[in-house]
Specification:
By secondary structure, the chain is mainly alpha-helical. The chain contains 13 helices and 2 strands, in the order H-E-E-H-H-H-H-H-H-H-H-H-H-H-H.
Length: 306
């Protein structure tokens, strides 16, 4: 018997209707300011010079459609994309082998390890940020950083990568373990009995069968890192108003100085009254998240439950 049940069809219709409404409403907010698309910046007279971000400057109101003309947006996007790619690479290199071990071997305390990483997924990012502050500002890690001459807290690349890595790794690990759990271990045993080494059995049997789930886990880890907010804000803060002398020549060369994580930039803009600009940045994250989920479904990973 094939076909979707009436309840499933009703749910799909409701979901797509809601998604369509959100898309049209978002498009309306952009099109309502279409005259700003090709304007570098629009000055709004608000009574002269006002204190904004701790220094005197003209208050500027960039409408939702004009955010792409702002260098701050592109610097923040570059910073977020590069940091997220590094985070995803580290999470994948560490997480995929760990997920395989957790899926295939019985090791002491495995239940506690699974509970720990599962707890990280549902833990607020602010808690992760505070824990990182305590870990890296006190005790042995603090002494080690002083000896090396480098501090993670409130640093640009290392701090952001570390803050986004915790939840990204935990979520990716759950997905990768689910992918390996879906592959019957007997397939590997048969390959081993036919003369294959452990590595060859993994590479030629297990890895191809778990490929869709592994790719979906990588996308999921990348999306989670991209959307991280609280941990990055607590552990790193903001960088837009720091003086240029605080940034290295390399950071300036690649146009990532005086920039923020995109989700932090959303908060900063809304906090200081630029609601439309904040919405534009948030819309970028919504589009990236939607595309990522669509790709995961297209590669056949929608059957996994994480």
């Amino acid at each position: 018997m094939s076909g979707k049940t009436p309840r499933r069809k009703s749910f799909n219709m409701l979901f797509y209707s809601f998604a369509g409404f959100l898309f049209l409403y978002s498009a309306y907010l952009f099109l309502s300011n279409v005259d700003q698309l090709f304007v570098t910046e629009t000055a709004v007279q608000t009574g002269g010079i006002t204190a904004v971000w701790g220094e005197d400057r003209e208050v500027l109101n960039k409408f939702a459609g004009g955010f792409w003309n702002d260098p701050y947006f592109w610097k923040s996007l570059n910073l977020t994309v590069v940091s997220t790619l590094i985070t995803t690479l580290i999470a994948s290199v560490l997480g995929i082998p760990t997920a395989y071990v957790l899926s295939r071997y019985r090791i002491p305390g495995i239940s506690a390890i699974e509970v720990l990483f599962s707890s990280l997924i549902v833990m607020p990012g602010s808690v992760i940020g505070i824990c990182l502050i305590v870990m890296f500002n006190y005790g042995p890690l603090w002494n080690l950083q002083n000896a090396v001459g480098f501090k993670f807290a409130h640093s640009l690349f290392p701090g952001m990568v570390l803050a986004s890595l915790v939840l990204s790794f935990a979520l990716g690990l759950s997905a990768w373990k689910a992918a390996f759990d879906s592959v019957n271990p007997r397939f590997e045993h048969v390959a081993r009995s036919l003369g294959s080494s452990r590595w060859r059995a993994f590479r030629t049997v297990t890895l191809p069968l778990a490929k869709s789930g592994i790719i979906a886990g990588i996308i999921l880890a990348w999306t989670r890192a991209m959307a991280e907010f609280s941990a990055v804000l607590f552990f790193c803060g903001t960088f837009r108003e720091l003086p240029p002398s605080r940034f290295s020549n390399f950071t300036k060369l690649i146009k990532m100085d005086q920039a923020d994580w995109v989700s932090v930039a959303v908060w900063a803009q809304v906090e200081f009254g630029n609601v439309e600009y904040g919405f534009a940045l948030a819309y970028v994250l919504v589009v990236i998240g939607g595309i990522s989920v669509y790709v995961m479904h297209r590669i056949g990973a929608k059957g996994y439950v994480w």
